[in-house]
Design goal:
It is a single chain. With 286 residues, this protein is mostly helical. The chain folds into 2 domains: 111 residues, Zincin-like (2-Layer Sandwich); 161 residues, no CATH class. The protein has a 3-stranded mixed sheet. α4 packs across α5, α5 packs across α6 and α8 packs across α9.
Length: 286
């Protein structure tokens, strides 16, 4: 790619970054932080990844974009610049989706700064309970970013962006529906000596995670999206209030991710009721 052409494409990404930052601010969410710095191009890769081996280099080069909460910055690799793997008609929507997705990660961190710090520490822990919470945080982080990106592009951007985001979400929905007949879960049920399909894949998943904390990592995006879609229906005032509550009190157990209603009843609603009780007039008859 010629230098002049590369410069034009990088400029297009910066224009799209301005655009999605504007969308985020118009969404009604509490955006009270400054826009993260953005680094465009593989020449910045060593600012975001520790390149200690060929494997880590492959991981870095295959990562389309990433938000680094420590640097409060977003990295975009060359693939998104030159449009490799994208059709020309979807390239602009793809860039906007990726950029907004990373901004949602920034939004989550800035509204709960313990989240990023704990997520890093927990995933490196040898303790199974800590590993569980670390994985749940990662699942929630990705699902939250996917769902809010879909809603913002659908409600606030043009039709093509909304349709593109919805088409990717539809893939995750289809994959989730297929889990009940997934061959891997049938095999796991056999190993765990659980009746299949009577046990259901969720019970198998819970038992499997107890023995193999890394065994569900491949389902992070699918389970994370289902969790947040169940809780965040749209971007009206009630939903935005719910966004604030789940950011303050994120899920912490695998059970919460698999059964969103249990998470609401165990963590969100009790906190809401406590808050209502504290704010109630002591002389009220209600």
């Amino acid at each position: 790619m010629k230098v002049k052409e590369l410069g034009i494409k990088k400029t297009e990404i910066l224009i799209d970054y301005d655009y999605v930052w504007g969308l985020l601010n118009r969404s009604g969410l509490n955006v009270s932080f400054s826009r993260p710095e953005i680094y465009v191009g593989s020449e910045h890769v060593d600012k975001f990844f520790e390149i200690a081996s060929q494997k880590s280099l492959v991981v870095a080069n295959s990562t389309e974009a990433v938000y680094d909460w420590k640097a409060d910055a977003i990295y975009i690799n060359d693939e998104l610049i030159n449009g490799a793997g994208y059709s020309r008609s979807n390239l602009c929507s793809s860039r906007r989706l990726v950029l907004l997705h990373e901004l949602i990660h920034a939004f989550l961190f800035h509204n709960n700064k313990r989240f990023g710090e704990e997520q890093d520490a927990l995933t490196k822990s040898e303790n199974k309970r800590s590993q569980e919470r670390g994985w749940v945080y990662t699942v929630f982080d990705e699902g939250f970013a996917i769902r809010l990106t879909e809603l913002i592009l659908t409600f606030w951007s043009d039709v093509q962006d909304g349709e593109f985001a919805s088409s990717l979400a539809l893939i995750l929905k289809d994959e989730y529906r297929e889990l009940k007949s997934d061959k891997d879960f049938r095999l796991r049920a056999l190993i765990l000596k659980l009746p299949w399909p009577e046990s259901g894949w969720k019970k198998v998943a819970l038992r499997w995670f107890e023995k193999h904390p890394h065994g569900l990592y491949g389902l992070s995006y699918v389970l994370g999206y289902n969790f947040t879609e169940h809780i965040i229906q749209d971007l009206n005032k009630n939903s935005i209030d719910m966004v604030s509550r789940i950011v303050e009190t994120p899920p912490s157990r695998v059970e919460h991710i698999l059964y969103p209603q249990r998470y609401l009843s165990q963590k969100v609603f009790p906190k809401m009721q406590k808050s209502i009780g504290q704010n109630r007039n002591p002389h009220s008859k209600l």
